[in-house]
Amino acid sequence: MIRLVRRDRASRKLAVAAPLLALAAAILSNLILFVAMGKDPAAVFYALLLEPFMTWSGFSEVLLKTGPLLLIAQGLAIGFRAKVFNIGAEGQFILGAIFASAIPVYFPQATGGWIWPAMLIMGAIGGALWAVVPAFWRVRLNANEILVTLMMSLIAVQLLNYLLLGPWKDPMGFNFPQSVMFQYDAMIPILLPGTRVNVSLLLAFVAALLAWIYMQRSFGGYQFLVGGLAPNAATYAGFSQSRAIWLSLLIGGFAAGLAGAAEVAGPIGQLQRSISTGYGYAAIIVAYLGGLHPVGIVASSLLMAALYIGGDNAMVSADLPVAAVRVFQGSLLVCYLAAITFVRFRLVRTKGAPA
Amino acid sequence: MPAPLLSLRNMTKTYGQTVANSAIDLDVAAGSIHAILGENGAGKSTLMKLIYGVERPDEGEVLWNGAPVHLTSPAEARRLGIGMVFQHFSLFETLTVVENISLIVPGSKADLATRIRALGQDFGLVVDPFAHVHALSVGERQRVEIIRCLLTEPRLLILDEPTSVLPPQAVGLLFDTLRRLRDGGVSILFISHKLDEIRALCDRATILRGGRVTGDVDPRDHDSHDLARMMIGRDMPAPLHLAPMPQGDLRLELSGLNHAPDDPFGMGLAGVTLRLHAGEILGIAGISGNGQAELSRLISGETVLPAARRDEIRMMDKAIGHLGPAERRALGFAFVPEERLGRGAVPDMSLADNSLLTAHPLGLLKRGLIDRQAEAKFTAGCIADFDVRTSGPEAEAGSLSGGNLQKFIMGREISLNPRLLFVAQPTWGVDIGAATAIRHRLVQMRNEGVAVLVISEELEELFEICDRIQVLHKGALSPSLDPRSEGPEEIGRWMIGAAGVAA
Amino acid sequence: MSGIEFILAGMLAAATPFLLAALGELVVERAGVLNLGLEGMMAFGAAIGFIVVYEGGGHFAAFVAAGFAGVGLALIFGGLAVGLRANQVAVGLAVGILGQGLSSLVGNSYESLTITGLPKLAFPGLSDLPVVGGLFVQDIIVWLSLIATALIWAMFRYSRLGLILRAIGENPAAARAIGYRVNALRLCAVMFGGAMAGFAGAYAATVYTPLWADGMIAGRGWIALALVVFGTWLTGRIFFGACLFGAVSLASLVAQTEGWAVPSQLLSSLPYIVAIVVLGIITSNKRLLKINGVASLGEPFGP
């Protein structure tokens, strides 16, 4: 009989090793899948994991995808550590994109350096507003934020569709569900010349730094942690749980909204249906894979961004369906969650009774 | 001589590095009441789990009527004829009595209900089979547990600290029931740390200390000193003496505090009134589940009153019923709750981070950021001052024993230099050495002019350290009683709600 | 056919995916486990079911295969959430993402293909009634789902198994102390929930709308999760909740035929809006949740 025994102290070594072990396990299990699908696993993994880093243009695309993932995941991780499970970042991202797009859609002729910063601010506000409903529902009505945030996302998709098929549809757009192309001043300046990477990547790294200070060093972040680990201890110490829930959801919505705004004001340049390729959900994986730690999340967002780019590569070079990347992402998270069990527990052989 | 009903040989059980039971031998004769005596942490509960098949030993052998048996599960133990009454009951609140019983005892509900009533009549264990468990008092729940065991017609009945949930009068009734069972041929294994009870009831006593057997005696042949020596290796600590103190200023006042709990299984409070002054210890006696949890949350501020009713709770002469815990602490209030893990401390955080929980105003923060050095220094101070046995400030709270964690939390709260200190169940699950240290410290605080409020189930403890005692029963608080003039019997009457009617 | 008649006739079939998934989740949650992977399990079951029918295996085999697909994912979920005591929320999300990925992957080459559903069986006599007659013309799976509802209701009401599940959900430590193998039972409940989610997905893809489109489960798993809360963990209320959502999801079709001037996107959002509102109403009653709820829901149990 094998059973789990709690360690006297969480193992730091394993906490760092867990994502690497998970990556190895995920590669191994997907290897079998790819072989079963009749693909050449070597070609697939080369395209998926190495090719994105082999060329500067490939890597710049990875950085481009890292921005939104990093931003959203930092926001989500703060809430997750307080056990406030905002899984509706996708919707908050969409609302951010919609709010930001309002400026170029209604003022297509406007010029000036204020436009793209104003769009980012609008986007952040939009994302945070979308998180107001789940926060209110949780604090005042005691409703589970997991379900409410998720359903708000599904509603956000419908809202986006409505705008793109109705009032915001580009009249010159051959009836495609998309807005007008944004004017030059509505685009975020490019950060690395010759690439599509723009200034919003800097914002994401600033956000990561702020998250690190807040979560690892400040008393405010400590209160979040207590609320997540032992809610009764938070109440005992007089840390407001309602405040933690409001802040968690608003920060998560703010960050996701900012990411959404940066996407339409950056690489996409208009509002369209495919503004998000599941960033909001992928960021959940990023947050966990980074151990909910601001520094870990920087690493995991790079990895996940590479998987996005690698997935596109593999589709072309190895004829791999895009869905295979989602399977890989899912199994990566599953393997990670299995691996982190052993940070707190170890396996012991006993003659003891089964559970 | 016939073989004993139950024999244990060389029973050993370890959890990680902790040896809970080491080479334990035990013989329980048929038709006897056999005590397992030991203080908290001596390994009594582990031994009982081994006998009932909840846990399996690492080593050792169990003989039943002289034949070796393997106790692989509680169902197997019940099949042999072993029944167990758990200390923290194994009942399900949302189910009815008969549903709870049918989880162990086969039979239709109607049939079981009839048998429950009949058994209740025979043994003085009356309970409504169709009541929901959450609506029952603690004493009634114990009856349900005992009935549930008896319906399996056991040859051996194990009771784990059964008197801790009973008022003094009910203890006598329980003992009568147990003697009647013994005379009917049921052996009883009676687990306790109370010497008098064992001397009053038991035919035989096995004493445990640190997971080992330190004595196997007839308790009637030994006085309390002998038993105490076997149990803790020395004499029981001498009782404390309270020097008279002049009455200080009023620090806590509850006037007609009413409360309807959010929790439908909770107990409401009705007209609770008390006054606590500087330099005195007020004890709240009573069986748990009579409103203690609700009262302590109201005093601590974990439950707040609407602003209109703020006057029902006053601290340091200010109406504070509407204020939260942090604001009350700012007035000089400190609180040690009954649940240490998960409320008084965060199990997965280091002791240093647990200091921050309530001691952050003592200079542990710098411009909103945590000052790690100050935090570590404060924590090391607590550990040294209160003799907390641990590897250091970085140890996780969850890795400490109950007694050591309690000393740490007491240390943290006392370091806040409170004007009003509130401690709920100061010595629950704490070994005698630590319990003595904690009681000394409370009296010392009182002597230094702190107002101390103590909620405890242990009547002896309250008699030892309190200037005054009030009893909580069904959400109502008795008038103030003087432990020097009123005996345990009088307090006990209030604990079952009889005194109020008589008075 | 009037709008009312249309909704009555189609309501039960529309409700069936919700109902099957929610009944499975009810059993899982009663045992103390929160399975947020429901959507992914349904999606995978739907893809597998569709493929089996399309490749000529027939509906019976399709449901069996979809059930196994659900159980397979449930075993991953249960292995981590129950066996390794991992965070149930995180594992549920992970398995959900995995299930949706697998669903897209295996369904990749079947996009937009169609199959034939199942014939409707009329309940003799009742099906001829005016207005409500349509209620009694349903396919076999709907009839079986109604029977399953009754069986699960009876299990919790009368059987020892129902009592045991409630016990391990309320107080796993006590249940273990009196000898129940809490985690083994929880794992069984999780597997049952996985099978039901697989059936629910298969119904959606092979009977209700017999065509394959990636993402066709479209949030129904999440609605099913919400339904368990709406129903305050009671079988009868979950059934009525499922019917309500079945009816709401038909509203957009009715609106189109009646020519209402409402944006179709608003009607598509209607189930989610209704879910959010009803969730708020139900959960704001804390007493109701405490009395009917599952005390240890979402907390891993380690002996």
Architecture of chain C, CATH level 2?
Orthogonal Bundle
Assembly classification = heterotrimer
Largest sheet of chain B: 6 strands, mixed
Radius of gyration of chain B, in Å, reads 24 Å
Give a quick rundown of the structure:
The complex is a heterotrimer of chains A (355), B (503) and C (303). By secondary structure, chain B is an alpha/beta fold. Chain B contains 17 helices and 22 strands.
Describe this structure in words.
- The complex is a heterotrimer of chains A (355), B (503) and C (303).
- Chain A has 355 residues and is an all-alpha fold.
- Chain A has a domain at 62-290.
- Helices cover 71% and strands 3% of the residues of chain A.
- Chain A has helices at 12-36, 41-54, 56-81, 89-106, 115-141, 145-165, 200-217, 219-229, 231-237, 241-268, 279-289, 294-317, 322-344; strands spanning 2-6, 345-349.
- The longest helix of chain A has 28 residues, at 241-268.
- With 503 residues, chain B is of the alpha/beta class.
- Chain B has three domains: 6-232, Rossmann fold; 237-332 and 418-503, Rossmann fold; 346-415, no CATH class.
- Helices cover 34% and strands 23% of the residues of chain B.
- Chain B contains 17 helices and 22 strands.
- Chain B has a six-stranded mixed sheet, with helices on both faces. Chain B has a six-stranded mixed sheet with strand order 16-19-20-13-21-22, sandwiched between helices.
- In chain B, α14 links the parallel β19 (420-424) and β20.
- The mean pLDDT of chain B is 90.
- With 303 residues, chain C is mostly helical.
- Chain C has one domain: ABC transporter involved in vitamin B12 uptake, BtuC (Orthogonal Bundle).
- Helices cover 71% and strands 2% of the residues of chain C.
- Chain C has helices at 3-30, 38-54, 58-83, 88-107, 140-158, 160-170, 172-177, 182-208, 220-230, 235-258, 264-283, 286-292, and strands at residues 120-122, 137-139.
- A two-stranded antiparallel sheet of chain C has the order 1-2.
- The termini of chain C are far apart.
- The mean pLDDT of chain C is 92.
- Chains in contact: A-B, A-C, B-C.
- Chains A and C meet through β1, α5, α6, α11 and α13 of A and α3, α4, α8, α9 and α11 of C.
Topology (SSEs and partners):
The complex is a heterotrimer of chains A (355), B (503) and C (303).
Chain A: E1 2-6, H1 12-36, H2 41-54, H3 56-81, H4 89-106, H5 115-141, H6 145-165, H7 200-217, H8 219-229, H9 231-237, H10 241-268, H11 279-289, H12 294-317, H13 322-344, E2 345-349
Antiparallel strand pairs in A: 1-2
Chain B: E1 6-15, E2 18-28, E3 33-37, H1 44-51, E4 59-64, E5 67-69, H2 74-80, E6 82-85, H3 97-102, H4 109-123, H5 138-150, E7 156-160, H6 168-183, E8 187-192, H7 195-201, E9 204-209, E10 212-217, H8 224-232, E11 250-259, E12 269-277, E13 281-285, H9 292-300, E14 313-315, E15 318-319, H10 325-330, E16 333-336, H11 351-359, E17 365-366, E18 369-370, H12 372-385, H13 402-415, E19 420-424, H14 432-447, E20 451-455, H15 459-465, E21 468-473, E22 476-477, H16 488-495, H17 498-502
Parallel strand pairs in B: 3-8, 3-9, 6-7, 7-8, 13-20, 13-21, 16-19, 19-20
Antiparallel strand pairs in B: 1-2, 1-4, 4-5, 9-10, 11-12, 11-14, 14-15, 17-18, 21-22
Chain C: H1 3-30, H2 38-54, H3 58-83, H4 88-107, E1 120-122, E2 137-139, H5 140-158, H6 160-170, H7 172-177, H8 182-208, H9 220-230, H10 235-258, H11 264-283, H12 286-292
Antiparallel strand pairs in C: 1-2
